[in-house]
User: What shape does this take?
Amino acid sequence: MQRKFIIHPDYKSVKTEVQKTIAHFDDYHDILGDAERNVIKIVEIEGKKYTIKSFKIPNFINQVVYRFFRKSKAERSYNYANKLLELGIKTPFPLAYDLYTTFFLFRKSYYVSELLNYDLTYRELVHEPDYPDHEAILRAFTRFTYDLHEKGILFLDHSPGNTLIVKTSSGYDFYLVDLNRMEFRDLDMETRIRNFSRLTPKKEMVAIMSNEYAKLTGEDESTMYQNMWSLTAAFQKKYHDKIALKRKIFFWKKKYREDSK
Assistant: This one.
């Protein structure tokens, strides 16, 4: 098994400790989130807390792809985090990434970043309409997204759990996480509006975001709302159709197993 370990140049003094911590990943039990696919654990290295994200080993085809043709999710997360910080966008500090490969296949990968103590995510705004300062946070989030777009950042996983929100004395700070799918380029208006489509199924929230984004871009507010809601509704339909299909497949697989007994 070959190993590629990269650590931030400013933290080379803790390189050995970070490598040891990753090697004992399975021994840690402080898990962050529900770990459906990738597992995130909280660790302490020389008095500071970090998260280590262990990415699920990909299917055989992607093991070949990531070995020879495409950078891994862990490497992209590290590189994109550094790129965001260079552009003035907040994200938990990227400490290191670690890759394991064979001669022909890509296997395990880990991404290490500082643990951020945050107050909420966008998800709370969706599920708690009476959350304190709800509209002000939503408008601040929209301004944050506008800043991303103006800087040529397309965050492809711009979804409810991937922006961490920290309350400050002057307002709110926003930190992007789950960074492995991003593009950096000039963004047309349709692409910008589509980037809001995965955030909420609630019309009233889309109305506020479209109002704020229209102010920032100088676009017509009515047209902005119609386009933003249309793309949101299309995404929601596609999402729920996919869930329904999975349930049907699960049902028929279960029925087949029962009938085969």
